[in-house]
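In this supplementary section we document a worked example of the pipeline. Step one takes a protein sequence of length 145 as its only input; no multiple sequence alignment statistics are reported here. Step two produces a three-dimensional model, which step three serialises into structure tokens for compact storage. The input and output of this example are shown verbatim.
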Amino acid sequence: MERPASIVTFERCYLGAWIVGLANTALNWTTTVDQLTANPAVANLGASFASTVLVGSIAVGAALTLILWYFVARQGSVVAKWIVTVLFAFGLATFLFGLAMGRIGIGLGIVVTVVTLALQGTAVAMLFRPDTRGWFGRDSVEPLA
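The serialised model returned by step three reads:
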């Protein structure tokens, strides 16, 4: 089956959000390492340990992102579709909670985060468009009851 236009758009937005997120991580590397080493449990281990943990986290996140991308955009997995949706909802809720609690400062970082969330939101919305039914194995409209 040829991939629907919505799946192609999902793919572009999802991977675009990932790339923007990686760029944001690179731009804020020093700040993130400083935040990690401010934790007393990590402070004794040093900045190099914090950097290693950060690199490991990025690698795990990249693997998860690419695995989910593959199963949604190339295999039509309904399970992966819902994992992407739940992770987006969790990330959005976390961002909004942090904003409401004053834990997120105003600056370039928040702009990049909003762009990333907008791309992710667009990607998730594409998964629920009518042209994706066949892609996810549902050829007809599901009954409401």
